[in-house]
Design a protein that fits this description.
The protein is α+β, with helices and mostly antiparallel strands. The protein has one domain. The protein contains two helices and two strands. The chain has a two-stranded antiparallel sheet.
C-alpha cells in the first residue's frame, strides 16, 4: 500500500522490506565531512540521494542518461560522484560548458 503522506516523489521502494519508504531513510543520521577542503564538501540531502539512486539504477540497466536543470542544481556534482566510483579501466574526462560556450569555441 502506498503511504498517504507526501507524494510519490518522497518515497522509494525498499527492496529488502518490500514496502515504500521515505528517501529520508537513506540519509546518514550523523553525517560529517571527511577531511576535505571546504569547497569540495558535498552535503547529502534527500534530493542528492534520490537523484543519484535513480541515475545509478538507469546506468546499471544499460540506459543512457541526460541530466537537465538550472545552473547550480548539482548535475555536475552528481555525475562526478558517479564517475569516481567506476573501475580503473574506465576512463573519462569532463568538458564544462556554460551559456557563453559556442559550438565554434568547442
Amino acid at each position: 500500500m502506498f503511504p498517504h503522506s507526501n507524494t510519490v516523489y518522497e518515497h522509494y521502494l525498499n527492496q529488502e522490506k518490500k514496502e515504500w519508504a521515505p528517501w529520508d531513510d537513506k540519509l546518514q543520521a550523523n553525517w560529517k565531512p571527511v577531511d576535505k577542503e571546504f569547497h569540495k564538501i558535498n552535503v547529502p540531502t534527500v534530493d542528492t540521494i534520490r537523484n543519484r539512486y535513480i541515475v545509478q539504477a538507469l546506468l546499471d540497466h544499460g540506459s543512457q542518461v541526460l541530466l537537465v536543470g538550472h545552473s547550480g542544481v548539482g548535475k555536475t556534482v552528481l555525475v562526478d560522484g558517479i564517475l569516481t566510483t567506476l573501475d580503473a579501466n574506465t576512463h573519462h574526462f569532463t568538458i564544462n560548458f556554460s551559456a557563453g560556450t559556442s559550438s565554434y569555441n568547442t
